[in-house]
Amino acid sequence: xxxxxxxxxxxxxxxLSLILYFLNxxxxxxxxxxxxxxxxxxxxxxxxxxxxxxxxxxxxxMEQHISKYGKIFKSHLFGENTxxxxxxxLNRFILQNEGKLxxxxxxxxxxxxxxxxxxxxxVGEMHRDMRAISLNFLTNSRLKTHLLRQVEKHALIVLSSxxxxxxxxxxxxxxxxxxNLMAExxxxxxxxxxxxxxxxxxxxxxMKGVVSPxxxxxxxxxxxxxxxxxxxxxxxxxxxxxxxxxxxxDLLGWVLExxxxxxxxxxxxxxxxxxxxxxxxxxxxxxxIYLLQGCPTAVEKLREEHLEIFSTKKETxxxxxxxxxxxxxxxxxxxxxxxxLRLGNVVRxxxxxxxxxxxxxxxxxxxxxxxxxxxxAVHLDPSLFDQPWHFNPWRWQSSSGxxxxxxxxxxxxxxxxxxxxxxxxxxxEMAVFIHHLVLNFSFDLADSDQAFAFPFVDFPKxxxxxxxxxxxxxxSTHPPRARGLC
Length: 486
Hints:
Blueprint: H1 2-30, H2 46-49, E1 53-54, H3 59-69, E2 72-77, E3 80-85, H4 88-96, E4 102-104, H5 108-114, H6 124-137, H7 140-159, E5 166-169, H8 170-187, H9 194-210, H10 221-245, H11 251-258, H12 263-293, H13 296-316, H14 324-328, H15 331-344, E6 352-354, E7 358-360, E8 363-365, E9 370-373, H16 375-379, H17 423-440, E10 441-445, E11 452-453, E12 457-458, E13 464-469
Parallel strand pairs: 3-9
Antiparallel strand pairs: 1-11, 2-3, 4-6, 5-13, 6-9, 7-8, 10-13, 11-12
Helix pairs in contact: 7-8, 7-17, 8-12, 9-10, 10-12, 12-15, 12-17, 13-15, 13-17
């Protein structure tokens, strides 16, 4: 009798599963889904989608699919049925309806390594609370009075270490700059100290796991990263205990004094801010150096702008530190930053899912489906940007100056309620680093290298650059200029 009951129960489950399957298939047949290809069973099209390609392009997968299906198409990516959007209007619609029609939905492996309380994976009220903490510590007044000085200090520490007539790996140097800045900003860690260097070493291992396949077996990058994550969290916990005994004016101290977050929540917040504040900005700075070395006209325009700031400061006898007013005068620098973020696309796509059935431009987006707004495809869309694969900072000048780029289509920091909390700090870091770079150095690509999307953007060789100090430049030490994008 027991065996008969078990068989009946199993048959009932199978029957119910078949009913649900056919009901779902019937529902999908009634829907007007975008065209597309679901790829192989289980795998879908994830492998070709993630195949590395030059970061200043959309990649073969997107090119072929957009050509065949249009800017909105269906696929099966990251183990889920997916609507992929290369459409500027749909991307804005998705980001503006965060929490209403769509919700952040990153793969489980990302949450496993960044932590369940990471701002990247949190949704709803908890995400709003975490984001509010970050915004409260990154107010405009704090950027003006405190962070500008910190940013300039760390930029000068890195740049002053560059010898004349040497080759430096620009991406590694940019990472050194952004990591040391965030380590001091978050936990008052001084650059070069043993504890800072130990944390940096663990963080490098951690980052390799974030961008690797989530195979949690001994010896894999993901497995090593989880071990480094544990070490980093213990380090943060020690710093939390120190803050209880003495108050420091860093983010960790501020959070302990002004929030009700648990220990685990604070640890994941600090770890995710280290990730967001270090990795993306350092890649953006490396991209700017790469694109500028190929565009001498833009470098000269930058030098004119920054020499004027420097000369005015010298004439008036002002403090040598940059002021906020001087930062706001860096108008062409902001054009370079916008163009670098548009063409380089540090953040290429976002993970969302539909909370309800949504209809857009006649297409149905079923509830529960993954939605992938591909930011890079909009930034490189020739119908939106003239010659989008060319590095042209002038496109961002005001309309009176001949600029033609539609600013509403530039979304390097996302948009809507999840707009990156550190966007203004990132632009400040880039501008200050560029200021001292163009004033003090000439730079050229020392070896062939370019940015690739893996999907995280990276320079395979670390971007080797030949640098010469401006006051020591001579024809004999200056290599031929590499051909660039403009």
